[in-house]
Write the structure tokens for this entry.
Amino acid sequence: MTITPATAPLLPARVRDTTDAALARVDAALEGTGARLVGLYLHGSLCWGEFFAGSDVDFVGVLDRRADTDVIEALRHAHEAIAAEPARPAYDGFYVTEADLARPPADLADHPGVLAGTFAVGRTGDANLVTWHELAERGITVRGRDAAELDVWTSMPALQAYSRANLEAYWLGQVSGLEADKPVLASDSEWCVLGIARLHHALQTGAITSKSGAGRWALEVLDERHHPVVHEALAHRESGASDAAYDADPEVRRRAVVAVMREVLGEYGL
């Protein structure tokens, strides 16, 4: 494995162990297929300097040619072995070519990938505009050309359109579910408050940020009545903590989470 001096300090030991093991498995599996893994890049929380207990290692693997049946089966076996290895962070991502990265992710053909330990072929995992922007702006190079040298397709107008569509297609349904008296835990607070705040940030600022960055930004732009649940969302993401008052009365947490989501959705007429 090749880790450049510039990126090595960004990788915690558990992440280096994970990528070392994954590369060994994938390289061994690809022997005899005629394909090679020529690039491995990390994005997600790691590229924002945010790696907490329970964080995933999100990767983009670059093959030297499009995956055929033999390559797909080799990768499947490799990731079954990776998923069976204990005491490592989840290793989620997908495999494409450099040429794929130079085009909008919406144009991707079906490709192999893994999410929560499950390998599949299709429109997999995080092969979306957020990942393309993270890779272009701050991707961490584990193997191959430096991420900054890759020709990764980006478009902030397209990302903002994608974010707006995601609010309607996903988050509108999520808030409706919460309003139907669904029990809301601190983990739901983290997922919903920080997730919707991240889209709100992209739409309002024309820039991407991390989930924690979105939470800190939300504390600057949202009314103070929303701050307690934003603080809980950040605390749960970064340390697993929850707000004792919400634990004592989860209905108060539910109303607080819904209020944040409704305020953001209302900004876009939803």
Q: What stands out?
A: The chain has two domains: 8-149, 156-267. Residues 1-9 have pLDDT under 50 and may be disordered. The CA atoms of residues 1 and 23 lie 7 Å apart. Strands lie at 37-43, 57-63, 91-97, 111-115, 118-122, 140-143.
